[in-house]
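WARN  no MSA supplied for this record, continuing single-sequence
INFO  ligand: NAP
INFO  echoing inputs
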Amino acid sequence: MGSAGTIELPADKPEIALITAMDRSRVIGAAGKLPWRLSDDLRRFKRLTMGHTILVGRKTFESMGALPGRRLVVLSRRGSQPQSSQPQRGAQTPSGQTPNRQARPQSSAAEPGVLWTGSLAAALDACRKEEKVFCGGGAEIYSLCLPLARWLHVTRVEAEVEGDTWFPEVDCDQWRLVSKDLVPADERNEYASRYCVYERISGRPRVSSGDELRQPGHGRETDGDRV
Ligand SMILES: NC(=O)c1ccc[n+]([C@@H]2O[C@H](COP(=O)([O-])OP(=O)(O)OC[C@H]3O[C@@H](n4cnc5c(N)ncnc54)[C@H](OP(=O)(O)O)[C@@H]3O)[C@@H](O)[C@H]2O)c1
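INFO  complex generated
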């Protein structure tokens, strides 16, 4: 750990990619769940993360359970699965997909494909041989991983939804948009969305005005958000 809450990332640590879906005010969750139904986003989440490790917070794990084909590294300050911590019935992945129900624990016994760790440093140490790991949230874990991330995979949901959990503020001067795909609303996708991939840069970013990562508070923007 470095000073002021930062972690010095050794050269042999994996590349970190945050993957999230947020509304126009950076809402990501409501009452422990996702505040939308976006089938195409779940497919994107699955395609991008398949075969990789995903870092998640204990609360997000409880909302989604284990995921087939992916290793979850779950952060809890206890460093182990709390007795009371079980994935909810009807749990969803961050992007709404069906979790691996058969792998869900019915007791506190270790769950296949799930590793519990007590700190981000321990979580990254458990991934030190991997090229790339994903951070799948929620807000607390995004805040931990954002300073270390090279990539942001952001589904920008074209809506203002009610919620209680927000993606952390982003210094947009540090990121540039490298790709963007538009997905219309339809019977499978409650809202239109844009799949945006940002890469950390040191120079001036080049993102069109519609792609800023905005502050919570009904669409207000500040100079610090602009890219
Ligand atoms: N839209 C999206 O893409 C997306 C993605 C993921 C989640 N979500 C939503 O986000 C919400 C959950 O987010 P959240 O921020 O409330 O919870 P969270 O980040 O999923 O989990 C928080 C927990 O992580 C553990 N933790 C936090 N910092 C830690 C540290 N430094 N070291 C070790 N463990 C640490 C703590 O567990 P203990 O209390 O056990 O110590 C803490 O209570 C839900 O609504 C979920 O649906 C949305």
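The first helix runs from residue 39 to 49.
INFO  checksum written, moving to next record
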